[in-house]
Amino acid sequence: VMQQVAEFLCVDGPDLVLKPALAESWKPNADGTVWTFTLRKGVKFHSGGEMKAEDVVASIDRLADPANSSNALSVFSGILQKGNTKKVDDYTVEFHLDAPNGNFPYMVSSDNYNAVIIPASYKGDYEKSFDGTGPFKLEKYTPKVGA
Known about the structure:
- The chain is of the alpha+beta class.
- It contains four helices and six strands.
- It has one domain (2-107): Dipeptide-binding Protein, Domain 1 (Dipeptide-binding Protein, domain 1, Alpha-Beta Complex).
- It is globular and about 45 Å long.
């Protein structure tokens, strides 16, 4: 259900090569410690707001925050800390890693099912409401039953 209502910065294709999704491109700095992602313009959340860099920063910071007990924390632990995702401008985000990592884009892709981008202002309960950018909008979700 998650991949129907939300999107990732990039997706892993059937050929195991990453393809653009919410990000149109990404590249590392010379030593692989900073990854810069350029976002697609005009992407809307189901609530109507445009997806921008602050949404990416907030989404990834939530996942990298040990206080949130996110399942994605094990992916980011020792690689990306809360506060090290930076907005450069409305459509550019930098990830400042703890150490060089050539596989980092896979960590913010469909390979990490928690790494979907939601609005920075989102304070809801994922099991009751969800605001994503995917092709479908979640109308109702009943725990232990489904959408």
